[in-house]
């Protein structure tokens, strides 16, 4: 998730614009990023408001104009990024290069495919602009610490989720037979949906067991979910606690062989000999 | 959140009353605080009971009298606090100074704006008196330990919540297109509301997916929520576990002023001088 | 929660029975405890089955007989406990002495107060027999480890719950004004009930916000609840992690002043001098 | 959960097939396992699709054929496993031996018991094939780490779940009396079901308290559940954090065989001999 090219290309204007668009160290670069984030948030808000029937009726035209204005703005920005970056291919294929493209494509695709029916599909594509918000992550160093901890815990979490899904499939299948259509368990996939809704403690209640046996099985599933909710939390806790420990350098004192010196120690804490 | 002025002003009666109102070390000061907390709890109970239709019909008049009695009591208390404190401006602008004012203002504002319609608004202002309960926090030292741990974990929690909200926006927009009006996904904001309700495992069930694709996406969101619920818990756990570790002794090296020596260090790890 | 008197009274039969009733070290004592637990579980099951209308219609008489049989059994047991224990008053006023009495009293009280109406009340008293199950805790040492960790974390959990309840009161009062009667927010207490249902992520859905502002406030409350669910978990995690750490003895080596020796160390691990 | 026999039997073809079926070190053995997992996933998908009425109507015949094909495939696989393994009895009675058998039995049993009524029962037996998915666990080493942590925490979790269930029984019985039939608390078992649904924060909402007293008791139960959800999480967190700690070096004292020396120890802490 590194920005692909931090070296500005050698060329007056290009280098200056690159500094503004990609850089975060100059006041201009920082102002550009803040304004861009504001524009992204506003464009997301416009898409959201357009979907509310009451607002769309009254301000529909204005919202559509604002949406196209943002589309043009983001298109220019994307073009400038492509122009000023040193290695076009690396940027275009990077995570944020693809996100930047996806954020403008839907609007143009909606022109090529008009019609009453397809309008719904167009709205669907348009909504992907929301991904632009993900850019927010770019400048926050904290996220990397979290990602590292999650990455370290990934194999354990994968095994854990596999176990949860297996339990959901087994319980879903059994509940489908025990409860049947009346209580909403109309098929095994629907019952699995219910099992996950129950294990994750979401519990919509749109499907709920009615027979004593079904309720008993639901209890077993809940208590199982209650017990296993501890597992991913425990994994991440342990990972973060471990990550937070200052690693004692493995330096050994040459005169007294004392180990476990702090990384910033210059003299042995036991005998005072220089390290 | 420190009480702004602990130095009593030089003056017989004022100093004595200051000791009672602000102090917690004398029996009188402690009794005052306990009685005040009781009065706050009772006044909150009065506001709550007044909102219950059945009780308001029968005991409405008595409750309104009790409410005004508490308002007068708290007004006198606020005046005494302003009179006895050394630096009026510091207290008036402190967190608790503002809370103390907000707790009495609504009642007086309700007199200035009579009428059938505005009565509802008055009730709204009145309810802010509930904030007075926050005074409870003042005397509990434990809260500071918790606050310190939460403060240390704040940047990570902010990044985490940003990620959760982004996921809610993306999933909400997609579900709006997949499910449509019938299942309750009437607009993108409503769908985002559903997404947060699902991710936080609250799961009211007032809105719930009905199509197989919608249910599948809901499952993905639930399992995502199940996996990420581990993150804030892990962060706080790690922070609290770290906080509980024996702090490095505060011994300072007499020759180079280096701090943070291990409890078992005999020589300064920076300059080698004997500790 | 210790059994008050472990010293058997000096007297042949009484001492022998005491050994069986209170002791857990002899085969007879262990068999008695296992049988008692079985009887308790069965008596709880009888009370539960009696409440199911379909079962009560068919097997009501048999269940009532079984219930009286268990009542007599537990009465005899209580009398034997009183007879064989060394200090009657200590046992009678201990936690389990009171639980043992409460487990038999309701049945006898139901005889003194006959009548159609009072029958319901009798059932209520009867149900307290369930407490007898708490005896299960007595022999499990693990519970003490948990209790110690919870006790150490108690002040923090109290502060935390106070904060949660304050937030519930404030949000409940605001939602009462924002949403009103239609969405189910009929009074402030009911709204507080909704707020706790939401913060604890239970989310029944019997009361749910309908206005955009109400839904927005509900989202804020959910995310607040999502963030704070980390706190009690973190507190207990930290407490248990700390409890699991072997405390290094504070013994200092007389020849090299090295600290942090293991509790079982006889010689200094740095210089080999005898400790 | 070890595969019972890793030693291939001495015999050309049998040993070669054993290597493919049981081994994971050769390319052939690995390919076999991947194909088997795919077949298991597909067969589970077939059972799931068959339960969806709309799909069963159109593609019912094809799905039944696919199901029988998978049954035959798994039967052949089971026979090969029995033939090539060294100790038939050990395999047949091992966890996976039984799972392998259960995964094929239901299909054959459905032939022996035809009829309209029994068809439903046959479906029930059929669904147990889902257990085959459990085979997925076999090759993941991560699972063992998790299992070890869970096993170490098991006694504490058992005590904890016992406490949760006791609380559910007590609250369920009290709510049955407080709320009654109207709100859905039709019997004590149903009320206990509600109590567990509430404590685990699932909260379907199919049963919800309506009286003020019932709502107050529900709040108490929720906050209890909120507080205790910390316990299993804390237990597993502590267990995993402990597991991650650098193990005391396995150095053994040459003179007294004392183990568990610190990594920085130079002399044996028991006898003072140099390490």
Q: Could you please describe the fold and organization of this structure?
A:
Four copies of one chain form a homotetramer. Chain A has eleven helices and no strands. The longest helix of chain A has 38 residues, at 142-179. Chain A is flat, with a radius of gyration of 28 Å. In chain A, 65% of the residues lie in helices and 0% in strands. Chain A folds into three domains: 12-135, Four Helix Bundle (Hemerythrin (Met), subunit A) (Up-down Bundle); 141-244, Helix Hairpins, CATH 1.10.287; 248-275. The first copy, chain A, has helices spanning 12-22, 27-50, 53-84, 88-93, 95-102, 105-112, 118-126, 142-179, 188-199, 212-228, 230-243. Chain A starts with 11 loop residues before the first helix and ends in a 32-residue tail after the last helix. With 275 residues, chain A is mainly alpha-helical. Chains in contact: A-B, A-C, A-D, B-C, B-D, C-D. The interface between A and B is large, with 66 and 61 residues.
